[in-house]
Amino acid sequence: MTRTIRTEPLRAEVFAPFGDVLDCAGAPDKIINQGLCGRWHDRAALDFDDGRAGISLFLARPRALPYALDMVERHPNGSQAFVPMHQHPFLVIVAPDAGGTPGTPRAFLSDGAQGINLHRGTWHGVLTPLAEPGRFAVIDRIGPGANLQEHWFDAPWTVLAGA
């Protein structure tokens, strides 16, 4: 069985059920540093049940479209933010929760200057850069206990470039 989904642009209003889009859209909220710096203030809701926020650096191998999606994961104890350390688009795959398992996935394509913050418990694909370097700063929960659930699909989804 072939199941496909198409990428769509990463836009805050469409992505909102899954998390926050981190970008510099619109005018800055504040001008700081003697008028030389715009600040887009408090762009993501970090949410942890215990532990603390930590910043880790990831270097992921690039992938290509079409992309075979066979697994998603989620983190029940905390949100997870991905901030690219490059100017290349990356693939963001999420799925709504359907009674404890992922529903139909959706695929978003960042514009190269956007990051994301996934809400706690959001089903999502693995980090999927589309070009080198796949370097990201990741802000997530550092603490005790298991904070990873994986779901393997019976039949993979094929992610294609948008129409």
How would you describe what is shown here?
The chain is mainly beta and 163 residues long. It has a single domain, classed as Ureidoglycolate hydrolase (Jelly Rolls). It has one helix and 16 strands. The protein has one helix at 12-15; strands at 3-9, 19-22, 30-32, 37-39, 52-59, 67-74, 80-84, 90-95, 97-98, 101-102, 106-109, 115-118, 123-124, 128-129, 135-142, 149-160. Strands 1, 6, 8, 11, 13, 14 and 16 form a seven-stranded mixed beta sheet that branches.
Topology:
Layout: E1 3-9, H1 12-15, E2 19-22, E3 30-32, E4 37-39, E5 52-59, E6 67-74, E7 80-84, E8 90-95, E9 97-98, E10 101-102, E11 106-109, E12 115-118, E13 123-124, E14 128-129, E15 135-142, E16 149-160
Parallel strand pairs: 1-11, 1-16
Antiparallel strand pairs: 2-12, 3-4, 5-15, 6-16, 7-12, 7-15, 8-11, 8-13, 8-14, 9-10
How would you sum up this structure in a few lines?
It contains one helix and 16 strands.
What descriptive keywords fit this protein?
single chain, 163 residues, mainly beta, Jelly Rolls, seven-stranded mixed sheet, five-stranded antiparallel sheet, 1 helix, 16 strands, 49% strand, globular
